[in-house]
Amino acid sequence: MKKTSYLLMSAIAAFAWLLAPGMAKAADKPNLLVMGEDADEDTVPRDSRVFRRVVNELQNQLNNEGYNVFDETAITLDGYVQGRVRRTDAEIIDIARSVTRPPIDVATMFIIYASAEVLPYTTKVRTRIEGRLLNVQTGRSMGNFEVESPTTWRAPVNCSRECILETVGTHARELAMSLGDVLVQKLTNEVTGGAATYMPESGMAPAPAPIGGGLNGGSQNPGYVTQYVLTFENFTTREMLDWEDYLRIFSGYRSHRAMEDTGMVHRIWYESSIDDAKLHRNLQKAADKLGADVRITKDRNEYKVQKIGMRKMGGPRQDAW
Question: CA 241, 291, 280, 282: dihedral to nearest 10 degrees?
Fold first, then answer.
């Protein structure tokens, strides 16, 4: 009887844990774009088969983890010159930011270095791939890592540049696989907030630890946190106090702070795991609760709330935000 009760309680706890919002399984995952940098003449160019092998393997690693990975060529066919090489860092970030169908959240960027040391009896080949994760809307670095080839890679004597690239290409997939594994771990930690994603041997699930934020009903659940700039125009300082009460109870809330305040224009840095559509909806709902007629516009991660007029104002309520 005790054994049956224990198993039943374990099953209920495990089921509740699986349904808990904000765990890695339920967290909204960002849209990703894999892009390579090749502006440095010492790097492997974008039109190389080595480059393509690395792109394919990184995309495969991210796809296997359930992320939304988009092909750069496919989503930039219209309005962009294709096949460009030796692109600068600024160029590829600008491309990632300007794509809106679909909007890109994170760029997975990499650089491939390949060199050779020619000896009388052999050619030593060295390869290094550097990768990093970048929030393309805010510019926040989300982590970086690099992998290097072992010292045993060899090529024939008098190996040309093409010959060296062929040798590198033979092993490029292995290096990209290792790099992708690390970047996936870093990205998953960002998305889940470091929450547990496994069931312990006891069968009982640990309670997820709060990761900050979520005051007055706002979510404390982990999720992919991004940064927004919220600008409120034509609101008094007293009216902004009411707005801040609402901003704290929006789901996914982490933190906020004032960036600029000129009396009737208030700019706020807002960190949250809430998705764009829900944030837009919540801003409109909050305006309705406060009795404000507003116009809300969005440009990438920046929202502008402009007051047109006021009706009777109410106070914040613990609705489903």
Answer: 70
Cα–Cα distances in Å, from 110 out to 34, 223, 288, 296?
8, 25, 46, 37
Q: Is the dihedral of CA 46, 176, 50, 44 positive or negative?
A: positive
DSSP for 250-300, please give it. STTEEEEEEEEE-SSEEEEEEEE---HHHHHHHHHHHHHHTTEEEEEEEET
- Contacts by 255-262, CB closer than 8 A, 24 or more apart: 255/212, 255/213, 256/230, 259/229, 261/237
Closest Cα partner for 270 from 224, 225, 210? 225
Chain mean position to CA 254:
16
Identify the bridge partners of residue 257 per DSSP, sorted by sequence position: 269
CA-closest candidate to residue 17, choices 205, 220, 209, 211: 205
Burial class (CB in 10 A: 0-12, 13-18, 19+), 190: buried
Domain covering 20-192 in this structure, CATH number:
3.30.160.150
Residue in 65, 94, 62 with CA at minimum distance from that of residue 80: 94
Query: What tens digit of pLDDT does each residue of 128-181 get?
Result: 999 999 999 889 999 999 999 988 889 999 888 888 888 888 888 889 999 999
Selection from 236, 295, 230 nearest residue 258 by Cα? 230
Taking the C-alpha atoms of residue 97 and residue 210, their distance in angstroms, rounded to an integer, is 32
Q: Which helix (H) or strand (E) holds 190?
A: helix 161-192
Residue with token string 């060295």 = 126
- Per domain, the residue ranges of the chain are 20-192, 215-310
Domain 215-310 in CATH 2.60.40? The answer is: no
Q: What is the pTM of this model?
A: 0.67
Burial of 107 from C-beta contacts in 10 A (0-12 / 13-18 / 19+): buried
pLDDT tens sequence across 215-242: 334 444 457 888 899 999 999 999 999 9
Contact indicator for 253, 218 with CB cutoff of 8 Å: yes
DSSP label of 86: S
